[in-house]
Amino acid sequence: MTRILHRTIGADLPRAVAGQGVYITDAGGRSFIDGSGGAAVSCLGHGHAEVLEAMRAQMDAIAYAHTSFFTTPALESLADRLVALTPPGLDYVYPVSGGSEAVEAALKMARQYFVEIGQPQRRHIIARRQSYHGNTIGALATGGNALRRAQFQPILPETHHVSPCYAYRDQQVGETPEAYAARLADELDAKIRDLGEDRVMAFVAEPVVGATLGAVGPVADYFRRIRAVCDRYGVLLILDEVMCGMGRTGSLFAFEQEGIVPDLVTIAKGLGGGYQPIGAVMLSDCIYRAFAEGSGLFQHGHTYIGHPVAAAAADKVVEIISRPGMMDHVRAMGDRLQAGLDAALGQSPHVGDIRGRGLFRGIELVADKDSKTPFDPALKIHARVKAEAMARGLLCYPAGGTIDGRRGDHVLLAPPYIVAPGEIDMIVERLRDAI
Ligand code: PMP
């Protein structure tokens, strides 16, 4: 009997004992192709020799130094590297140990920023329905997943939600992408005015929605319009790239494809590539200066932030991701994955939509393709696809059931960037058979 409290109590899971490249092996000798990098984490696959070497060297030198006493060359190198690779406007890095911590820190940074500049009444956070921003209480309240929030009510009262940008379901017949984007921006504008023009501190969104919708990107112009609304009212734009960032969509940040720069961006998952738990918030010079010229203190912190081994791992991961040709490969393999899925599943009466960017692809499963009618949640289609895929030696990351009152089943694919063309084809074949 296991002494582990699993999320699904009593779950009987295989034991992972080895990982190499895009494969994981269990204690029974079964091999799985890692079609989702866990939850879009293992961007360089398993057992990457250069990352292991960087970690080993750091452990030999010094494994831990508290950030209230020391910085480390690894952490400084990581911060410099991230800033150098990021579009101008995000010039500072706050290290944390994971995605929820990054979102939590970004929210507190936004809140304290307004305190520092004499606008403490700005407390409201607006995010989008059917979103996921983490499981700590602030991040959970920000996320628009009603089911996950339900048991923890009353949750932070200053969190509010508007519609996601979800063209497959919500763009009306005959409505252009521009008109759809304008309608969503108007909704945000109205929400801000409703809460009070000087009462809202931040709008939070994932550029490409991962866990809750399955790789749903924005329509053209959506984020430019959202940025304009935020600017109109002095609201900070926080983009959560915990899942879609670090090269996953074919550029280091997904927001680079939208022609905007946020005030804060959260990253994690692919930052450590699964080798170490690590995350970060990147922030604007304006926010940094408000702290530096104000109280001189960010009222936050955790024991393991800036962990030297995590920083060394992430520094190497980011260095590898940023090598010439890497993003070209992600885009090429992503195109191959999309084409393969279109060919294998495009005609299926139960595949409503196949979408995504780079090596971040999603499939929406429906009971009826023409009417887009979702499956009955009681059928647990997403969970069955996961089990069928595992039985065929494929790891994918399905989600669904009922999220925020809406039904839907999705499968997310996010293979490591080192995936080879033949392995993309293997993922497609196994997923087709599983579905
Ligand atoms: N934000 C997003 C967009 C995520 O996808 C996740 C994790 N699925 C988180 C935040 C939370 O990250 P973590 O699980 O590392 O706390």
Give an overview in words.
- The chain has 435 residues and is an alpha/beta fold.
- The protein folds into two domains: 16-48 and 325-434, Aspartate Aminotransferase, domain 1 (Alpha-Beta Complex), CATH 3.90.1150; 53-321, 3-Layer(aba) Sandwich (Aspartate Aminotransferase, domain 2), CATH 3.40.640.
- 37% of the residues lie in helices and 18% in strands.
- It contains 14 helices and 15 strands.
- The protein has helices at 37-40, 49-61, 73-85, 99-116, 137-142, 146-150, 167-170, 177-195, 222-233, 285-293, 308-321, 326-345, 381-391, 421-434, and strands at residues 16-20, 23-26, 31-34, 92-96, 124-128, 159-162, 200-205, 236-240, 264-267, 279-283, 351-357, 360-365, 394-395, 397-403, 406-413.
- The strands form three sheets. A seven-stranded mixed beta sheet has the order 4-10-9-8-7-5-6, with helices on both faces. A four-stranded mixed beta sheet has the order 1-2-3-13.
- The protein is globular.
- The model has no long low-confidence stretch (mean pLDDT 96).
- The structure holds 4'-deoxy-4'-aminopyridoxal-5'-phosphate.
- The site of 4'-deoxy-4'-aminopyridoxal-5'-phosphate has 15 residues, from helix 4.
- InterPro entries: Aminotrans_3, Aminotrans_3_PPA_site, PyrdxlP-dep_Trfase, PyrdxlP-dep_Trfase_major, PyrdxlP-dep_Trfase_small.
- Keywords: Aminotransferase, Pyridoxal phosphate, Transferase.
- Belongs to the class-III pyridoxal-phosphate-dependent aminotransferase family.
